[in-house]
Amino acid sequence: MTDRPESAPTPTARAGRLVGSALGSARVAAGGARRAIRRNPKADRAYRTAVGVTGGATVALGVVLIPLPGPGALISLGGLAILGSEFEGAKKVSTRATALAKKAAAKVAERRQQKAPASASE
């Protein structure tokens, strides 16, 4: 039993609202910063270069990690998403790659479900 009235929000709900509002205001601030960068050609070029280097390095790291156990493919998809935030071509590739990854994950889940009843009955 709690001594809180029914209508009072829980501490978890209050924390969730605080985090949500902080993320929302950060998004607004980031949008304003991007607009300011776009107005200055030198800053825009530097920003796009930084995004390109960061995204490219992330994709490269993911590709190197693909043969190893771990999330190499997911890291590559994350790098594509970073690149897609600034470059239209990368955005198209990222959208297609994400769709293919979701399709493959659905097939794997389906196969696991098909195998589960067979192995449980043995």
Structure description:
The protein contains four helices and no strands. α2 runs antiparallel to α3. The mean pLDDT is about 85. With about 120 residues, the protein is mostly helical. It has a domain at about 40-115.
Layout of secondary structure:
Blueprint lengths: L10 H29 L1 H25 L6 H13 L3 H34 L1
Helix pairs in contact: 2-3, 3-4
Measured by DSSP, the beta-strand proportion falls in under 5%
H-E order: HHHH
How many distinct beta strands? 0
Mean pLDDT: 83
Please name the defining characteristics of this protein.
mainly alpha; 83% helix; 122 residues; 0% strand; 4 helices
Task: Tell me briefly what this model is.
With 122 residues, the chain is an all-alpha fold. 83% of the residues lie in helices and 0% in strands.
